[in-house]
Amino acid sequence: MKxxxxxxxxxxxxxxxxxxxxxxxxxxxxxxxxxxxxGSNKLVMDLHxxxxxxxxxLSILVSAHKLTQQRSGEVILLSPSAGVRALIELTRLxxxxxxFEDKDAAIEHICAQ
Length: 113
What we know:
Oligomer: single chain
Pfam families: STAS
Family: Belongs to the anti-sigma-factor antagonist family.
Organism: Shewanella eurypsychrophilus
Order of helices and strands: EEEHEEHEHEH
Number of strands: 7
Structural class: alpha/beta
Protein name: Anti-sigma factor antagonist
Number of domains: 1
């Protein structure tokens, strides 16, 4: 997982790993929570590398959403694979997350607010 600050001080692009599974959940959740607590309340979660995500991986996205909402922020999802997108839609999370396929458009959206 990699954190890339964006042009807006409180915005960050987070590139997620190939797998988001239960074994990694505590570490990933803590790292993202730290990023939010240090002032990044607008996150672009880049899912283009994610090949597999389980329910605990989805819970990381939901936790980040809740934390940023408490700080008047937002989480948007970028480039989920077909399988990951299907799971997001199956769990109806596409109703709470904005999903972008284009990285520049996602960054423009998050930095314009």
